[in-house]
Each structure stands twice: as structure tokens, then as C-alpha cells.
Amino acid sequence: MTPRRALTLTGEAAVVLVVVALAAGQVLGYPVLLGYVETGSMSPTMEPGDGFVSVPAPLAGDAEEGDVVVFRAQELHGGGLTTHRVVGETDRGFVTRGDANPFTDQDGDEPPVKRGQIVAHALQVNGEAVVIPSLGTGVTAIQDAFSNAQRRLAAATGSRSLLGTQGLTYILFGLSVLLYVVDLLLDDGPGRDRSRSRDRESGVSPGLVVAALAAVLVVSATAAMVVPASTEQFGVVSAEFSSENPTVIRQGASSTFDYGVANGGFVPVVSYLEPASEGVAVEPNRLRVGSRGEATARLTLSAPDDTGYYRRYVTEHRYLLLLPAPLLDALYELHPWLPIVAVDSVLASVVAVLGLVFLRGRRVRVRRRESRHGRSLAGRLRRLLR
After folding, report:
1. Contact at 8 Å (CB) between 315 and 276?
2. C-alpha span between 238 and 304 (Å, rounded)
3. Per the record's keyword annotation, is Membrane included, yes or no (predicted)?
């Protein structure tokens, strides 16, 4: 492989990685690999529209003072994702502030940030966040262009199914089919020679085919484990009276109720439930959920001695049961992301073995049709360039 070809492939892989990361972030509802800020609250560290390298909270570990984190706010921005810096920690949670703000978020209406609210950390090198200028501006412009196109198509066809993420999938699929049909019509038009030119045969490396199939399978499996798993919030009212509502609890007392975990897939899963704030207990904390099934744990929420409204959090980690349960338990104890890596590795290995068995090292041939006029023109161009 020539250096130029290697550089081209590297650039293409980088573009694909950026697109996949941004798309995954939209689907999951929090930044994956890449994120961006929309306001000036982090200026001058990050200006509006600047991007940053995002590290998922389970990989980054506990937040510390000075870290720039992305958390699910309760009051800020109407309860959306917020990117601010941790400036302190109390018994109730972290104190956060935008670099451009003269006061902390907790000086306003935002309660202290719990660990369960933090979804990602901005990558920092030598204490400085790694910033990608104008990344968010470009992403927003592309999103607006796609949204406008979707609205126009939906209005022209009278179908609301063309709106949103699902509608974008339909549009892209339709464009792919249309381009394929146009290519066939141009290739097989009147007067064209349908003979195949063997000197135009191109072979695709079997390793590339296997890698593509493995990537599709691994991405699908990872999404099946990551998307359903999340941090669930419960609003607890510490009251002076008892109530039938399980989240309205007499001050200093507790309430226990069933917490269901559903599996809509065909592959059994193992779900681990962890308290992500004080005043939460789960029993059992590990559930096996069969294909298209549901399992139940007992969730206990405790109310503080002082009356008021409090938030409690439970985090779920979910893994496909493709490895022995004791092995998943051991990996989970080391780090919550290790079972995902192990399951993905097994799936990729299976695809690689099947690819070696069926392809047997043979290149996948792709033949192109070419007219006589095209061959003649190509020949003339080659002679002129010699």
C-alpha cells in the first residue's frame, strides 16, 4: 500500500468515525466520543459551537474538582444536558459552574449534581480541555439542512413518517435505491454492449469484508447493551404524612416497590442495578432477563428527616448473555465496560472464523459493465497519458 493510499484510507476512516460518533450521540441522548457546546457559559475555554472529545463517565471514573463534565441538569436549560466545570463537592453532590458564569449552578435553582447525573467527561490534557473549534457549528448546519429537507418532503407527500430520525432512515434508504436504479439504467441503456470486461475486475480483500461484517455486528450488539441501560430518576417527596404513592414518603421512613426490567430482544441479558445516589437500595442487584421477557427487583427509596422534594437515582448496566454468567460477574466487578468489550470481542471473533471458513482467503470480485464507447475512450486517454 502506497503512503498516499494509506493517508486516504486514514482520512476516510476518521470521517466515518466522526459521523458514527455524532449519530450515536444523537441516538443515545448524550455525547459519545465527540460533543459540543451551544452556549457561551464555558467561554473562554469553549466558545459557542466548539466541540470537545467526550469520554463516557464509566470510563472516566469519578469526577474531581477541575473536571469539565456533561450532566443531566434538573433546572438548567429546562433539564437538558449541560457542560460545566466541577468546582467543589458536598455531601449532597458536586458543585458546578460555567467558566464564564460569576456564580455556581447551585447558587441558583440547580441542586448539587449526583454521580448518576454525569454522563461524560471532556478529555483534558495537562488540565486543559481538548477543544475542536466550530465542530458544533458545522454539525448544527448539517442537521438544519436535513431537517428542512425532511419537512419539505413530508409536506409534499403528506406523510409525517418522513420526520425525525426514523424518517431520515427512510429518506437515505430511498436515495440509495434510487441511485442504484439510475446506475442500472445508465449501464444497461440502448446501444450499450453488455459484455463484461475482465480487465475491469476489482477484488475486495476478504479481510475487509469480514471487518465490515464484524463492525456491523459489534455496533448492533453494543447498541443493544448500551441504549436500554440508563440512569433512572425518582422524585421523592419527604412529607409529614403517609401516602399510597410510593414516592411520597413520611419523613425519615422508606418505601419499597417493584422495579421491572424488560428485554425486548431475542437474546437473554443480564442486568445489574446500582444505587446512584443516597437513599436507594435494590434487591437483588443482578437480574437475568430471558428472550422477550421481564424480571423484577425490589427498590427501596428512603426519605430524609427534613421535608421537601429530593431526587433519587438508579443506574442499570445491561449485557447480552453470550458469555457464562460468572465470567460476566467477574468482569463487571472490575469495570462496567469490560463485559461489553468481552461480548463484542467474542462476536467479532465468530465473524472472523466464519469468514475464514467460507471465503478461504479468496477475494470478493466486483465486475463492472462497460460500453464499447467507454472502453475506446478509456484506451485513448491511457495512450494520451503515456
Report:
1. yes
2. 6
3. yes
Rounded CA-CA distance 32/186 in Å is 41
Mean pLDDT score of the chain: 78
Range of the domain at 355: 224-359
Q: Which residues are 234's β-sheet partners?
A: 312
| CATH number reported for the structural domain that contains residue 49 in this entry | 2.10.109.10
126 and 252 part of one domain = no
Q: Which helix (H) or strand (E) holds 33?
A: strand 33-36
- Supply the pLDDT for residue 363: 54
**Ranges of residues in the chain whose predicted pLDDT is under 50:** 192-202, 366-374, 377, 381, 384-386
Residue 296 confidence (pLDDT) = 94
Q: pLDDT value at position 201?
A: 45
* 277 and 115 Cβ atoms separated by less than 8 Å: yes
> Is 319 within a domain?
yes
Half-sphere exposure of 243 (CA within 13 A, CB side): 14
- All three cell numbers of 68, joined, read 469539565
List phi, psi (to 5°) of 344. -65, -40
- The answer to whether 121 and 57 are in contact (CB under 8 A) is yes
- Residue 365 is predicted with a pLDDT of 53
What pLDDT score was predicted for residue 32?
65
Which amino acid makes up residue 239? A
pTM passes above 0.85? no
Distance of CA 285 to the CA centre of its chain: 25
Count of CB atoms situated within 10 Å of the CB of 276: 19
Contacts of 126 (CB under 8 A, 6+ apart): none
